[in-house]
Write a structure and sequence with these properties.
Blueprint (H helix, E strand, L loop, with lengths): L1 E5 L2 E5 L5 H8 L22 E4 L6 E2 L10 E3 L3 H15 L16 H8 L23 E3 L9 H9 L5 E4 L6 E4 L15 H5 L5 E3 L3 H9 L4 E6 L1 H10 L9 H10 L4 E2 L2 H22 L5 E2 L4 H10 L13 H9 L2 H6 L6 E7 L3 H6 L14 E4 H11 L20 H4 L6 H15 L17 E8 L2 E9 L1 H12 L7 E5 L17 H16 L10 H11 L5 H7 L12
Parallel strand pairs: 1-5, 10-11, 10-13, 12-17, 13-14, 16-17
Antiparallel strand pairs: 1-2, 3-4, 3-5, 6-9, 7-8, 15-16
């Protein structure tokens, strides 16, 4: 530890700390734009400049290491003027359309412009007029708004190892562009949306489909039915001024009806169903010599990654559709039959923490119901905008109940929202199926937490099953390289594309903090612990659907509606 003085405050900090880190310890707020707490230092924007006694030039706080006895000033007139000038220069190349921007009131550049009272700009406005990239169903790029912080590029290459974005040209001509093509669809982008969380402005965002939802609600011939993923409930409160995890599930049901949904069901129902199908598929492969290790198939960003970079291992993927797509197929077959409604009138809307779900719903093979299984996908952020748009007061909303036939769920389904949750849910059921004994303690705690790769060996009455869990695609790549090399000791591997799993999905409320992701995970397990039923095979509506409609896991009807196949997406990316 060494001692420095920041704005007259004496503070001790580690000898390898930057001025920015020391200022945080001193309680001094230094503005940043290109800085990201989980990324390498870039020092691109220079918004964090400050004075250091004895040095003639202003120093970037994010990249300047402290030294013992250093005297630093972060708020002198010269520093404030320099920061204002830097902001004005950035704004001179940035579209002045804040009112129309998807990040209005949630933009780091806008917040700094307000903080530093940028009222006029002496520099000429010189926006490039570059076209928006709307090539994918999931993500939109608006390169005119890019401030070249390179946070999106880092997230894509370092966290996700996808390398779909890169820097092109230099100086005034520099741009962040999709690699290997003119637009995102031609790049190896897996549409996970982690670039959206990294971006401080509106240069990259989800493909917003609120207008399509409002049009469906206004159509008297449509029966608008929703499913909602478990990660949505723990995060949606952040969009409406509540603490993480504080949104009551039953209040949320009523709120969804109030914004126009005719029926409110739950993706958790088909998460429980997934466990029955996927668990039995794993046991069949283990007993009959099928392709191992088997990978989970719930995360569409991960599926895109496997199709793009590991097409030689596609046979290792579970053939199960994701819970979203299972639900879509069943709501227009089983549920329509139970409710006595015309499936052609059902407009199936999923509410997801994930931008890749928009792409998944649009896949041409996802129509086993005879229609497009999922008509529309809204992210958690889009749902938050709808709630704000309709002016709901959550303190005055009475709790409601999910509708029948596809609304019941267990705690095992809830934990799908966190990394390791699918594995833990599967083990709760597989243990009892294999051993015939009741599982007294359902908590497989080795599967929990933010560690990048976790592994364990489970003893099922002499049947030893080795499992692994990875979240974030850079971690997935390590596991996949091991499998490709023939060195993997595992039978079953869960992979989630996003850090923390679905709670950190690309469609969740904007966050760049793993601490926030950990809060959401805590909310997931708290809900699980509060439920009476915590094993998927105990879900009474799942039992009923097998009795009345599907008949058995991996049966003919299940294969027709609940299973799929995957494709070698593009060999040029290998």
């Amino acid at each position: 530890m060494i001692n420095v003085i920041i704005d007259g405050i004496k503070v001790s900090a580690p000898d390898n700390a930057s001025i920015l880190q020391a200022a945080e310890l001193a309680g001094v707020k230094v503005p940043t734009l290109c800085y990201h707490p989980d990324q390498a230092i870039k020092a691109n924007c220079r918004v964090c400049v400050c004075e250091v006694e004895g040095l003639p030039l202003l120093q970037a706080a994010c990249s300047t290491p402290i030294r013992d006895g250093m005297v630093i000033r972060t708020n002198t007139p010269a520093v404030i003027e320099a920061r204002r000038t830097i902001l004005q220069l950035i704004l001179a190349h940035h579209p002045q359309d804040c009112l129309n921007c998807i990040r209005n009131k949630n933009c780091e550049l806008q917040a700094l412009a307000e903080q530093y009272a940028i009222r006029e700009n002496p520099f000429e406005l010189m926006v490039r007029g570059l076209p928006r990239d709307t090539s994918t169903p999931s993500i939109v790029r608006d390169p005119d708004k890019c401030i070249l912080c390179r946070r999106c590029e880092y997230a894509c290459s370092e966290f996700q190892s996808v390398n779909a974005l890169g820097l092109e040209n230099r100086g005034n001509h520099a741009m962040i562009v999709p690699s290997l093509g003119k637009d995102l669809l031609e790049s190896p982008c897996v549409m996970c949306g982690q670039c959206i969380h990294a971006c401080p402005v509106g240069a990259i965002h989800e493909n917003e489909e609120i207008d399509e939802f409002l049009a469906a609600v206004a159509d008297p011939d449509k029966i608008v039915v929703t499913q909602m993923a478990p990660a949505v409930r723990v995060a949606i409160g952040e969009e409406v001024g509540m603490a993480t995890g504080d949104m009551d599930m039953n209040v949320l049901v009523t709120a969804l009806r109030q914004i126009g949904f005719d029926y409110v069901l739950h993706t958790n129902f088909t998460a429980d169903l997934t466990i029955l199908e996927e668990g039995n598929e794993l046991l069949k492969r283990v007993k009959e010599g099928g392709k191992l290790p088997m990978f989970t198939s719930c995360s569409p960003g991960w599926i895109n990654f496997c199709e793009t970079y590991y097409p030689d291992l596609l046979d290792n993927l579970s053939t199960c559709k994701s819970p979203q797509q299972m639900f879509g197929a069943l709501v227009k077959t089983y549920w329509a039959e139970k409710m006595g409604v015309d499936p052609s009138k059902i407009y199936s809307v999923s509410i997801m923490p994930c931008t890749a779900k928009k792409f998944e719903a649009a896949r041409p093979e996802m129509n086993s119901s005879g229609y497009r299984d999922v008509d529309l996908v809204l992210t958690t952020r889009e749902l938050g905008r709808l709630f704000r748009m309709t002016g709901l007061d959550f303190s005055r909303i009475a709790p409601g109940k999910f509708d029948s036939w596809m609304g019941a769920y267990t705690g095992a389904a809830v934990i799908f929202g966190a990394t390791g949750g699918v594995m833990e849910a599967a083990l709760r059921t597989v243990y009892e199926v294999v051993t015939g004994n009741e599982l007294k303690d359902v908590n497989f705690t080795f599967a929990r937490g933010m560690e990048g790769i976790k592994e364990a060996e489970i003893d099922l009455n002499g049947l030893k099953v080795r499992v692994a869990i990875a979240h974030g695609l850079a971690n997935a790549r390590k596991v996949m390289d091991q499998v490709r090399a023939g060195e993997s000791p595992y039978h079953f591997i869960e992979i989630m594309a996003c850090p923390g799993g679905c709670i950190g999905g690309g469609g969740q409320p904007i966050t760049k903090s793993n601490a926030k992701r950990a809060e959401r995970i805590e909310g997931i397990y708290k809900e699980d612990e509060g439920l009476l039923l915590r094993k998927s095979h105990e879900n009474p509506e799942v039992i009923q659907i097998y009795e009345e409609f599907l008949h058995e896991p991996l049966g003919h009807k299940s294969h027709e509606l609940l299973h799929t196949h995957y494709h070698d997406k593009n060999k040029k990316f290998l």
